[in-house]
Amino acid sequence: MDDEISKHISKSPGVYGGRACIAGHRIRVMDRVVWNKMRGYSPDKIVNMFSDF
């Protein structure tokens, strides 16, 4: 992975079977894509959904 991307995306075998997650969180990258593309959530709405973390 590109250095800039690797700051924000991580993969760990014990977390969601090694699927890509937002670094420091148990939020899969694919979930974030679905929320934006299929449900129409804006990036700001997605951030606000997890502002308590």
Describe the structure concisely for a colleague.
The protein has 53 residues and is mainly alpha-helical.
Count of beta strands: 2
Shape: globular
Rg, rounded, reads 12 Å
The average pLDDT value, as a whole number, equals 86
Alpha-carbon distance between the termini?
Answer: 25 Å
SS element count, helices: 3
By secondary-structure content and strand pairing, the structural class works out as mainly alpha
Helical percent range?
25-40%
Strand order of the largest sheet: 1-2
What is the string of SSEs from the N terminus onward?
HEEHH
Description:
With 53 residues, this protein is mainly alpha-helical. It has one domain. Helices cover 38% and strands 8% of the residues. It is built from 3 helices and 2 strands. It has helices spanning 3-6, 29-37, 43-49, and strands at residues 9-10, 21-22. It has a two-stranded antiparallel ribbon with strand order 1-2. The longest helix is centred in the middle third of the chain and has 9 residues, at 29-37. The chain is globular. The model has no long low-confidence stretch (mean pLDDT 86).
